[in-house]
Each structure stands twice: as C-alpha cells, then as structure tokens.
Specification:
Length: about 80
Amino acid sequence: MVRAWYMDDSDSDKREPHMLDPPVFLSFEELNKKTGVDYFKFDADTWELNNELAELRKKKGTLSKMSVKFQKTLYQITTTS
C-alpha cells in the first residue's frame, strides 16, 4: 500500500516516518495536485504484457523501465530501455 502524509517538524532521525499526531494523510488526487506525482497500480506478474501500461508509457514518453525485486536476502533495482 502506498501512503503520503504531512510530516512533523522534528529534528530527530530522518529515517523515521515523522507523521503528525494524529497523522494527516493525502489522497492520491491531493498528492497529484500539490506535487504532480502520479500513482498507478498494475499486477506484478503481468505488467510487462499490460496494454494499459504500454499506452501510458507511450503517452508520457517514458522509454525506460524500472523493476524492484525484494527477497529475504536480496534487494535489486534494474533499469532498462
């Protein structure tokens, strides 16, 4: 699950979530309006064959792909054209 929230102004460890108390979350629509960030969800097992993703990449002019693979003992990021 992807979440975005307003951060507190604490100077403590920056690796911590720094959520307000209580947390104030942003919807994807709010995040897009404020930052221009888009969010799309595709099936991890079939994304390479997904026509909707292919059309989106064409429309946005995105030629490279990034995949992130997580396993118990492996963290790998691969970028391809």
